[in-house]
Amino acid sequence: MNAPTPFPDLSQTVNFHRTELSVILSLYGRFVAAGEWRDYGISGLREVAVFSIFRRTAEQPMYRIEKRPRMAVKQGMYAVIGMDGRILRRGHDLKTVLRVLERKLIRAVD
Question: What InterPro entries does this protein map onto (predicted)?
Fold first, then answer.
């Protein structure tokens, strides 16, 4: 019998694909250049992958970008969630879902 390992089985966790991370990090870089965001964190869990965005490192995240494959058929697997826990946008296409944040960048630059 195998002894339990202290490390989770990564084959059972949800993670962002390289193309998804490219889209997210492109948006993140534009907000960093505008001085709005300063840090991020990525978590791969059993049912959800989360990209958390912080204004300062010691805070709770301003926004969370979540990928939930189980929601793909229903409302879409991608969601942007605000600091207060409200879902700002949900959908099937990551770029479309992230537009809710791009609008905030246009306001920040003006």
Answer: DUF2794 (IPR021252)
In eight-state DSSP terms, residue 97 is H
pLDDT tens, position by position, 57-87: 667 899 999 999 988 888 889 999 999 999 9
- How far apart CA 7 and CA 90 sit, in angstroms, is 31
The overall pTM is greater than 0.85: no
* Cα–Cα nearest to 28, from 15, 16, 37, 18: 37
Which tokens in the block code for residue 79?
Answer: 């969601």
Give me the torsion for CA of 32, 43, 78, 16, rounded to 10°. Answer: 90
Number of C-beta neighbours around residue 95 at 10 A:
14
